[in-house]
Amino acid sequence: MEPTFTQAQSEAYLQAVRFCSYRERSRQEVAEKLHKLKLPGSEHAVVLDRLTGEGFQDEQRFARAFAADKARLTGWGPIKIQQGLRRKGVPDALIDEALKGLDAEALDTRLAHLLRQKHAALERRREPLPALERRARLQRYALGRGFGHDAIRKALDALLVE
Known about the structure:
Blueprint: H1 7-21, H2 27-36, H3 44-53, H4 59-74, H5 78-87, H6 92-100, H7 104-123, H8 131-144, H9 149-161
Helix pairs in contact: 1-3, 4-5, 4-6, 5-6, 7-8, 7-9, 8-9
């Protein structure tokens, strides 16, 4: 049996349903939306639980979609994806599961592509960079994109041998 909602909860629930309907949302994002809708904090849990129960909000589904989208569309590496999920309030167990669901080969291919692009941009400079500085810049760039040291080293070794 559904809990009875107050008028404010019903209105907030309908707004939250619309909010969750067009893209996956974390529980934290929905709670922030409820706060913006001026729903008292003590009433958030009832609305959030109903949204979860009816499938409008699912933390596991959100984590998988976030990880896949960030890897595929923005070129983020696993470390940056992990940080992004933590900022969204996703539990560590779900973060680990979402990261395991990523295609390691696709991540490596994406990293190699990003490094080739950055390398080409560095080559177009007026003043050529010494090899060590070029490698350091490429490494910092890849670290900033959220890739691990081992993956970066392998990709750089393959790129700079060509």
